[in-house]
Amino acid sequence: MGSVILKLVHQPVISTTHGKVRGQLRVGIYGDTYYSYDGIPYAKPPLGELRFKSPQPPEPWVDVRDCTKCPPKCIQANRYTGVIEGSEDCLYLSLYAKKLHSEALLPVIVYLIGGRFTTGDPSRSTWGPDYIMMKDVIFISIGFRMGALGFLSFADPELQVPGNAGLKDILLALQWVKKNCAHFNGDPNNITLFGHSSGSGAAQILMHLPQCKTLFHKVILMSGTQMHIRKIPKVEYRFAKHLGYNGEDDNRAILAYLNSLPAERLCDLQIFTPEELEEGHLFVFSLVIEDERVPDAVITKDPLILFANKQAWCNGIPIIMGGNSFESLMHYKYYTKQPKLYETLKRHPEYLISHEIRDKCSLSQQQMLARKIINLHLGANELCAKHVFDVLRLCSYDFIYHPIHRYLRYRMASASASTYLYRFDYDSLNFNLYRIKHCGREVRGVSHVDELSYIFYTPDSFKLTQDSKEFQIIKYMIDWISAFALNSNPNAVGNQDIVWEPLSLNGIRYCLNISDEISFMEWPELENCILWDQYLKEADFKIY
């Protein structure tokens, strides 16, 4: 799939801080050549006594390391088949360079994959860089630990498993990028952090950590925010019992038991009861708030406290933020294939609103709020499968649009650098690959993940004719991403028909709308977001 190795043998060797690596010259699906370095270690393998622990720098190597094959992804259960895939030894990054030599160093883009901090493969076998390598940039994707291996946590500092190991993996990788990208013709003073979905939520948090200052200089947040951090009570104990632990609720004993298991066993995260699944639980292990006494703690405050900090260093760097026009369409089958679901939702309308709201409001407030929101999106229509698209639009606001709106309120109150808002609304019959895979061809709309069809060459991608509208959208997406990476301004040279203006504190919230036609327009979701604000205030919920 995607790019292939050029017949011309060209395997340039580059020196890094820990040893030499050999890459290869590849050719993309549209004939663009680039240099590929797959599986560069940025940390020690997190095995044995390093399981669940913070990552450590890699040991130097003497021989030239072969970096011509995709590294393993973090060990995980395939979300479709349940088959265990990947390896516990997964702390590698992959680097793709359009040029290894040029008059000026190239801008660097570092990508964080989504997948609910539980699944995903950052390698080119899943997210091929073929389109991005049409441009003079360096593109880097990071492998980091997921699930229990990346986000198990214990409050006792003596256990040295405070949580967020997966986020600390990313932090260590960013330090590697800063020190090494110049060896590959990348500019260490022009690094863009780019995340999608949960990867976007991770990037958003990293923006607010003092440890990240100078490690990147601008950020792209696509379809994901991290407004709230919640931890399931006694989740480690529940997890251990699920895997066969018979002891007491003692953290030291639980950790010893989990350390004794093969990594494959730790991928079984099916701990929720049917009732909990009805309530909408998605994450078993995720980001946590750590004890500030831990020496390498990264998140020690609630995200809303971080976002409200007017002195945060990220207020001085530009960002692009946005989402797709029908994000929750990805859940179409969930909301159409369960006959009993709507009877549950009628009894418990609060299950349609976020866990953040449920954690911070009384049950009566939750239900009052949920009924108002249901009425806003469904009107007189009944809460049933017949009106699934109205239900899904409600979920899109809960899942993506209202969190974007809230974060922009924080951001615009303090930022001295530009903030750009986009909305992806291109609905292709044949190339919105995520929607096609998860909803079928008969369902239309622009789902969560659909925009990645136009940024990466995926296992479901196919070669387009270069006069097709889909190919033009690919070019447009790559134009603004690379322009932002180069100049901190997404208005690419040669695309001046529409000028994408940054947001202003007191102005109307305009966005770049990427559809059959590209337009600069008032953000269509704003009106309902303001109504959500009103309802949340009536429920005594802190919005900002």
The first-level CATH class name: Alpha Beta
Structural class: alpha/beta
| Strands, count | 17
Rg calc: 23 Å
Query: Unreliable stretches, pLDDT < 50, 5 or more residues?
Result: 5-9
Distance between the termini: 45 Å
CATH architecture classification name? 3-Layer(aba) Sandwich
When the domains are counted, the total is: 1
Task: Provide an overview of this structure.
The chain is of the alpha/beta class and 544 residues long. It is 28% helix and 15% strand. It has 14 helices and 17 strands. The chain has helices at 147-151, 165-180, 198-207, 235-242, 251-260, 274-278, 303-307, 341-347, 355-360, 363-378, 388-414, 433-439, 469-487, 526-538, and strands at 4-5, 13-15, 20-22, 24-27, 33-41, 65-66, 76-77, 84-85, 92-97, 106-112, 138-142, 186-196, 218-222, 319-324, 419-424, 510-514, 518-522. The strands form three sheets. Strands 1-4-5-9-11-10-12-13-14-15-16-17 form a twelve-stranded mixed beta sheet, with helices on both faces. A hairpin with a 3-residue loop joins strand 16 and strand 17 (518-522). The longest helix has 27 residues, at 388-414. The protein starts with a strand and ends in a 6-residue tail after the last helix. The model is unreliable at 5-9 (pLDDT under 50).
